[in-house]
Write a structure and sequence with these properties.
Layout (H helix, E strand, L loop, with lengths): L1 H18 L5 H4 L3 H12 L6 H15 L17 H41 L7 H40 L6 H34 L3 H39 L3 H15 L5 H20 L1 H25 L1 E5 L2 E4 H30 L6 H27 L3 H10 L1 H7 L1 H16 L7 E5 L2 E8 L3 E5 L5 E5 H6 L3 E2 L6 E10 L5 H13 L16 E7 L4 E10 L6 H18 L18 H15 L1
Antiparallel strand pairs: 1-2, 3-4, 3-7, 4-5, 5-6, 8-10, 9-10
Length: 613
């Protein structure tokens, strides 16, 4: 018999060596008799090493493994008493706790099996630790089977309890009003316990900061006792909610759907179970009861409505939850959305105001273009500013904090934004000072002339005679010289130069040209009065001509087209001089030849002959 046992152990080791890469299934599937024989052989070993001690311990654990015992509910039956009905639900919660605990242990054991078997596959075939690892692998495999069997048993018990609860609900009589009062009291008790837990946690943190170990130990003990009481009170609250839920079901009241969600939320908030556990164990019971008493269609409809309410509530909670805190003001997504909406509405309303002002002012003769622009732009920027501060107020940002930030960033703003600020202030000055107005014809430099079409806070737009829009920063009008042709009136004096030949009667020229101008077709655009008169004056006696200048006052659109207007007057003068036989000179040069010395002439001739050689 002894030889047979030894041969068996040798076979085990041989199989372990042969199949170690694939995990030894013989040890895993072994029974108590096999483990006892192996243990007996190991006890005969004279050498006692750590590995042998470990092997003995693991074999003894394998021998001692037994089925997991569960509390049976053989005495339970269908009841019509509310307290017993409550106990059925509490038993249901208790079995859920057991199932959750078993699943956690099952997962841990399965994870350990994966770790151990990955180690075994890396071992050398002659490694002395291989057998102990295989025994440990077998131990956890056995435990996994025990947990799986226990989970099946407890899940069957949960199913049986569900049937007991469903059948008992038909006979139990509830006092709905009383249950509602009790539920309110239970909710207040839970809130009180939560406050106590929070206070104890704060005290523990304070004790940890000063490293008072004695106080920490005392407070942790209190917290542990409080947690235990809190959990019992939470289950009591949950059972009360379930009784009221059952009461609403019997009354076929839609409040049952609200209670269903509240039961699930209470289970998660009080950490009785996780959301996954609620969906796996608790929700099926509640849904089954709803279908039995409310019907399939109403259950789906009611649950759908409640689900929608929950989604809306969660969405509302999400957007109203503070995401950042600025100067003790909590800023949420909702506040940010409202602020952005107010700011956008400010722009929209400002643009609408600007459009209305421009439309109304265009129909009123008393409004000039510049007045209309000032009213439109100022109102627009005031509306934008108001919207900006309203948006900040919704966010909870105080003006004092803005001033603080502005003060801190004043240096950066001064250097980085000085041109923008300068243009902004210049725009305000131009609007109020009215040195440049909409419709004015201005000259910025020799090549930039045109009508002012718009004055904004940052820049002014000029439309040239070539129909080119030029955008000029406002500060250029404040810092540089600007010629405004139409600032006070729409009138300008043109100076047209021309010349005649020497020998011409100057008085005759003046009379002829002036008379031609005053009797021309351009008299509609010429101003002629006691103050402003058309004149022809002699300016100089040049090398080739006697020069004159026509001084004529022009009004209206012609003054805005200086080149064209000057051209028209020059043509008129040219035609007038020609028709009156007045000579228009051109540059002349007289060439005078004088005699030269004969010797110089001879030298020039000699040099010329030599160069030809």
């Amino acid at each position: 018999m002894k030889n047979i046992g030894q041969i068996f152990i040798v076979l085990i080791f041989i199989m372990s060596s042969l199949f170690s890469a694939d995990i030894n299934a013989t040890i895993i599937d072994g029974n108590i008799t096999i483990y006892q024989k192996i243990l007996k052989q190991i006890f005969q070993e004279k050498n006692t090493t750590e590995e042998i001690v470990l092997e003995k311990t693991l074999l003894q654990e394998l021998i001692d493994l037994k089925d997991i015992s569960l509390n049976t509910l053989d005495k339970l039956s269908i009841t019509d008493k509310i307290d017993e009905y409550r106990n059925l639900f509490l038993y249901y919660l208790q079995d859920i706790d057991i199932a959750i605990d078993l699943e956690l242990k099952l997962n841990k054991s399965q994870n350990k099996i994966q770790t151990i078997e990955s180690e075994i596959k890396q071992f050398d075939l002659n490694n002395s630790r291989l057998f102990s690892f295989e025994l440990q692998d077998a131990y956890y495999h056995k435990k996994v089977k025990l947990y799986q069997n226990a989970i099946k048993s407890i899940e069957q018990q949960i199913t049986d309890l569900k049937e007991y609860i469903k059948k008992s609900l038909k006979t139990v009589i509830f006092n709905t009003t009383q249950l509602e009062k009790v539920l309110t009291e239970k909710e207040n008790i839970i809130i009180n316990y939560q406050n106590q837990v929070n206070q104890l946690q704060i005290l523990i943190e304070q004790a940890e900061l000063i490293n008072d170990r004695n106080k920490i130990q005392i407070l942790n003990k209190k917290l542990k006792n409080l947690d235990s009481t809190y959990k019992n009170e939470a289950k009591d609250l949950l059972s009360t909610q379930f009784l009221l839920f059952s009461s609403y079901l019997k009354l076929k009241d839609d409040k049952a759907f609200i209670l269903e969600r509240k039961i699930s939320q209470t289970s998660i908030k009080t950490k009785i179970m996780t959301e996954d556990d609620v969906n796996k164990y608790l929700s099926p019971l509640l849904l089954s009861l709803e279908k039995s008493y409310m019907g399939q269609l109403k259950t789906l409809t009611g649950a759908g409505k409640q689900e929608l309410k929950d989604v809306l509530y969660q969405g509302w909670t999400f957007i109203t939850k503070p995401i950042i805190t600025l100067n003790n003001s909590s800023i949420s997504i909702l506040k940010m959305i409202l602020s952005l909406l107010i700011f956008i509405l400010g722009f929209v309303f400002g643009a609408f105001y600007k459009h209305k002002i421009n439309k109304l002012a265009s129909n009123k003769k008393s409004f000039t273009a510049s007045t209309r622009t000032i009213l439109a732009n100022l109102g627009y920027y005031i509306i934008i500013t108001i919207a900006f501060f309203m948006a900040l107020n919704v966010l909870g940002v105080k003006l004092s904090s803005i001033a603080l930030v502005a003060g801190a960033l004043s240096v950066g703003i001064g250097f980085g934004l000085q041109n923008i600020v300068s243009n902004f202030v210049s725009g305000l000055i131009l609007m109020f000072e009215r040195s440049i107005k909409i419709g004015d014809y201005i000259e910025v430099d020799e090549h930039t002339k045109g009508y002012v079409t718009d004055i904004r806070m940052r820049a002014t737009t000029i439309n040239t005679n070539e129909n080119i829009d030029i955008i000029i920063p406002n500060q250029n009008f404040i810092q540089n010289n600007v010629i405004n042709w139409t600032m006070s009136d729409n009138l300008r004096r043109f100076s047209i130069p021309f010349g005649v030949a020497y020998g011409t009667n100057a008085h005759y020229v003046i009379d002829v040209v002036k008379d031609a101008i005053l009797n021309s077709e351009y008299m509609e655009d010429i101003v002629e009065n006691s103050i402003r008169q058309t004149r022809v004056i002699m300016t100089e006696m040049a090398d080739s001509s006697i020069n004159f200048e026509l001084l004529v006052w022009v009004k209206g659109d012609k003054m805005h087209k200086p080149k064209r207007t000057a051209s028209e007057f020059l043509i008129l003068i040219y035609d007038t001089l020609n028709s009156n036989n007045i000579e228009i000179p051109f540059p002349q040069q007289d060439l005078h030849i004088r005699s030269v010395d004969e010797n110089l002439k001879f030298n020039i001739t000699t040099n010329k002959d030599n160069s030809n050689e």
